[in-house]
Design goal:
This protein is an alpha+beta fold and 149 residues long. The chain has four helices and five strands.
């Protein structure tokens, strides 16, 4: 067992240096923006900047569409079961409502086919100082290795 102590000690030292030197995602994003603006006269302030993930559809919107679709299914089932008890005029009105709800349901079904996918990152709230102060946002690829449009 004594033969392993130097290797364990070396491993712990290496792990310590690696974890201390590792940059956060926000640090890498800020570094990319700073490198892009290094030759510019514009000064940037990153104090209030926030790094958020970007999805093709937000996971919350996806969950909401599934929930709303299930509610529409229930409503359509009730309408279809009650339509036979209505007069012709009422039945026609309910039919129009049912058609609109069915159209919305199909739209939600198409949306449900689109699973949320991680697209990259967005650094927002970057303040540009100068003659025309403004708030900037930057999009990054998944690994935060480059700024993308």
């Amino acid at each position: 067992m004594k033969n392993y102590y130097p290797f364990i000690f070396f491993g712990l030292i290496t792990l310590t240096f690696y974890s201390c030197g590792k940059q956060s995602d926000k640090d890498r994003a800020v570094a990319l923006v700073e490198s892009k603006y290094k030759d510019s006269d514009q000064k940037l302030e990153f104090d209030g900047a926030v790094l958020d993930s970007l999805y093709n559809i937000s996971p919350q919107a996806y969950a909401d569409s599934i929930k709303k679709g299930n509610e529409l299914d229930s409503t359509l089932a009730v309408l279809e079961s009650e339509i036979e008890h209505f007069s012709q005029a009422e039945s026609d009105s309910v039919g129009l409502i049912s058609a609109k709800l069915t159209k919305e349901r199909y739209r939600l079904l198409d949306l449900a086919k689109t699973k949320p996918q991680f697209m990259g990152w967005k650094l927002s709230g970057v303040k540009a100082k100068g003659p025309k102060p403004e708030v900037l946002s930057f999009n990054f690829d998944k690994e935060i290795t480059k700024i993308v449009p």
